[in-house]
Task: inverse folding
């Protein structure tokens, strides 16, 4: 199933010079992972506390791009600079879920039906949980779409940008999260199917 995740290798190529520089500076993959998670929490708090201000919503797309870059860099540091560890794997998966919750729950504050936002955030967690089940069941970690981590960042970040310029779009928040919730349910099924049909 198509997903922005398919462009990850090209994105990593762009980031490789920065990754090499960070490795030479002694920055570790786990430090990058923790930094991404903590800044996501702070960004989410800013959105929650100033949801009626345009600035944090306009900044969110840029922050999501930064988060995607950091997520790519921590993986590259781990794989290419011999920093892989069990702790790093835990931090990576937990960090993704915590960051999603922190960054997307604030959309409840601009939605007229926040239950859809909550449902989408729960399904975002479920997509990652099912993806992680792959290795636990002797298969690969699943990244199937159509609504993986990168896709969520692109769609929600794009909506935040438009909302920052046109606040009247708040009335469309529930519809957006309802549609993406459906796509994430589809993603869950695709990942589960991938584990069952391609176990290795």
Result:
């Amino acid at each position: 199933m198509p997903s922005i995740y398919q462009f990850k290798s090209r994105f990593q190529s762009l980031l490789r010079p920065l990754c090499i520089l960070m490795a030479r500076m002694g920055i570790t993959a786990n430090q990058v992972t923790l930094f991404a998670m903590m800044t996501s929490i702070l960004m989410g708090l800013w959105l929650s506390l100033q949801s009626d201000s345009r600035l944090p919503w306009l900044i969110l797309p840029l922050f999501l791009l930064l988060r995607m870059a950091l997520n790519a860099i921590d993986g590259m540091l781990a794989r290419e600079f011999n920093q892989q560890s069990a702790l790093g794997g835990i931090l990576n998966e937990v960090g993704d879920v915590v960051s999603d919750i922190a960054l997307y729950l604030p959309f409840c504050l601009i939605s007229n039906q926040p239950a859809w936002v909550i449902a989408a955030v729960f399904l975002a967690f479920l997509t990652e949980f099912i993806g992680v089940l792959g290795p636990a069941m002797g298969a690969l970690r699943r990244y199937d779409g159509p609504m993986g981590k990168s896709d969520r960042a692109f769609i929600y970040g794009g909506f935040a940008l438009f909302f920052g310029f046109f606040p009247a779009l708040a009335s469309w928040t529930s519809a957006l999260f309802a549609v993406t919730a459906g796509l994430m349910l589809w993603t869950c099924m695709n990942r589960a199917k991938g584990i069952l049909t391609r176990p290795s």
Remarks:
- The domain at 4-197 is CATH 1.20.120.1760 (Four Helix Bundle (Hemerythrin (Met), subunit A)).
- The mean pLDDT is 93.
- Helices lie at 8-24, 29-49, 54-80, 86-104, 114-136, 149-165, 173-197.
